[in-house]
Structure formats: structure tokens, C-alpha cells
Design a protein that fits this description.
The chain is an all-alpha fold. The protein is about 80% helix and about 0% strand. It is built from 13 helices and no strands.
């Protein structure tokens, strides 16, 4: 429990800071809006581009591990969309937010320190493989649901080329694509450009969490939690269970399986909130979901670590 607390405490600290600054009258709603735009258009793209451009890709991709993690993750995304449509009765664009909130794990802030501390060097290959692919796999799905699928039924259907153009020009998608291209070409940002990207990337997590805290201060965490509860069950329980079953079926090595299951059990990532804030979709629900998911995840991950580290 101490390990989990040490990792999770700074996350809540940043959120509480934003909450307190809003309640003290130092920050207001426009501050949260400005921080969210900075994170979405500048900090997150810098982080994704720099990480992918500099990543040491494995010579042979561990396909069973990738399939065991991302086939269930995509299935959970689809389940989130369906739940958003048939249970939560959200509009089409908001269904993409439901999908992302149900499957996107907080790997960078929680999964990385937890896995490396708990499992040591044996966690390196599965951890960085899954971490490098998460945004590349799930962000395009969410962007498509919001930008393309979400646009249907709202006036004339946009031309295909316009929808694809909006998808490609999305700052998150564009930064992912550029990062992969640079990696494959062998060009790596250096000198002043690399320092600039590093500074911007370092701001992503902190600004996002403070923005989340400011947003939470504008909503009541108490009250109707039905919509959040639906997403919490899928993210905190169904997602890690499906990944464990897939790893077992595909005979993923035990050292890699425990990392994959741990990452799936991570709480809903703050990027779901960034998408919700950017598009003005279900911000209150996603804010509550992230906070409650982090609380629940502390218990789930403690159980997983106890099982995997037991002598």
C-alpha cells in the first residue's frame, strides 16, 4: 500500500492544488480553459512527438503481448461507445469520450513508476512497448468518433476528404505521425529544439492535472454518479480481467503478463479529460470518473501487486 500511495499522492496533490486555487479565487474557469488548450495543442503533441522520435523500437515486435493488451483495449473502447449510446444515452461525439474513458490507462504517471519499482528491469520491454503504442492506437479511435462519427446527424454530412483532413490535422494525430516518421528516418531532435520540446513535454502532466482540479472545483463530486459508475466498472474491473484472459490464451510470458495486467488496471488517464475539455463533452462525468477511478485503482493494483509479488 505504501508503494501505491507514494505514486498516487503526487497525482492527487496536483489536482487538489488546482481545486484549492479555484476555490481561493486565484484561478477561474478561463484559467482551466487556457491550461487545457495549452496541453492539447502544445504540451501533449510535444510529449508524443519527442517520445516517439527518440524511442528505441524493439527489433522484433512482441506481437502476442501487443495483441493481448490492445485487442481487449479496443474491445473495451467499443463497449464504452455502446454503453454511452444505449445506457448513458449520450450523443455521438460524447460516445467517443465514453470509449476513451473506459479504456485509456494512466500508464505514464502511474503505470511507469509502479511497474519499474515493483518488477524492476524485467518490466522494461513490455512496459515501454505498451506505453509507446497506447496513444497511437487509442487516440485515433477517439478522434474519429468525435470528429467524424460524432458529426453525423448534425446537419449535412461532411465530405470524406474533409473528415479525413480534420482527423489528420488533429494536433495529437499529427504529432504521433511525425514522431513515427522521424524515428523511421533516423532523425532525432537535437540541441535547442530538443530542449524546447523537453520543456514543453514536461509541462503536459502537471498542467493537465491542475486544469482537472480547477474543473472539479466547478462541479460537485457528490450527486449523480451513475454515468461515472458505468465507466468505472468497465475501466477498473473489466479491462484488466480481459487483458489477463487474453494473456493467458496467447501464452504471454508471466513476467510480461503481470505488467500488462497492471497497466490495464491503472485508472482512467487524464487524457480522457483533455479530450472532454477540448471538445466540451461530458467534462463533469469524466472529471469524476478520473478521480474515483484513481481511488478504486489503488485497491485493485494493491491486490494485483500482492498476487504477483507474493513469494
Amino acid at each position: 500500500m505504501d508503494l501505491v500511495f507514494v505514486v498516487i499522492a503526487p497525482v492527487f496533490g496536483a489536482v487538489i492544488l488546482g481545486f484549492a486555487l479555484f476555490r481561493a479565487g486565484i484561478f477561474d474557469a478561463t484559467t482551466s480553459e487556457g491550461l487545457a488548450k495549452f496541453v492539447y495543442y502544445v504540451a501533449i503533441p510535444a510529449l508524443l512527438f519527442r517520445s516517439l522520435a527518440r524511442a528505441a523500437l524493439p527489433a522484433v515486435l512482441p506481437l502476442p503481448l501487443i495483441a493481448a493488451y490492445y485487442v481487449p483495449s479496443i474491445a473495451v473502447f467499443g463497449a464504452g461507445v455502446l454503453l454511452g449510446r444505449h445506457v448513458l444515452h449520450w450523443d455521438r461525439a460524447s460516445q467517443g469520450i465514453a470509449g476513451l474513458g473506459a479504456c485509456y490507462s494512466n500508464i505514464v504517471m502511474l503505470g511507469l513508476p509502479l511497474a519499474t519499482t515493483a518488477f524492476g528491469a524485467s518490466a522494461a520491454v513490455p512496459l515501454f512497448t505498451l506505453m509507446a503504442l497506447q496513444s497511437s492506437v487509442l487516440f485515433p479511435l477517439a478522434t474519429y468518433c468525435i470528429e467524424v462519427y460524432g458529426a453525423r446527424g448534425h446537419g449535412p454530412r461532411p465530405p470524406v476528404y474533409l473528415s479525413l483532413g480534420r482527423l489528420v490535422m488533429n494536433p495529437v494525430i499529427a504529432s504521433l505521425a511525425l514522431g513515427v516518421l522521424c524515428n523511421l528516418s533516423g532523425w532525432v531532435p537535437r540541441g535547442a529544439l530538443d530542449v524546447l520540446l523537453e520543456k514543453l513535454a514536461q509541462a503536459a502532466t502537471g498542467c493537465a492535472l491542475v486544469s482537472l482540479g480547477v474543473s472539479l472545483a466547478q462541479y460537485r463530486l457528490a450527486g449523480d454518479l451513475r454515468d461515472s459508475a458505468v465507466l468505472l466498472v468497465v475501466k477498473n474491473l473489466v479491462h484488466p480481467l480481459l487483458v489477463w484472459l487474453a494473456c493467458t490464451a496467447l501464452h504471454v510470458p508471466a513476467e510480461w503478463m503481470r505488467v500488462a495486467v497492471l497497466l490495464a488496471a491503472m485508472p482512467s488517464g487524464v487524457n480522457a479529460y483533455i479530450f472532454a475539455k477540448r471538445y466540451g463533452l461530458q467534462e463533469a462525468v469524466i472529471s469524476k470518473t478520473i478521480v474515483l477511478s484513481t481511488l478504486i485503482s489503488s485497491a485493485v493494483t494493491t491486490f494485483i501487486l500482492h498476487q504477483t509479488l507474493a513469494p
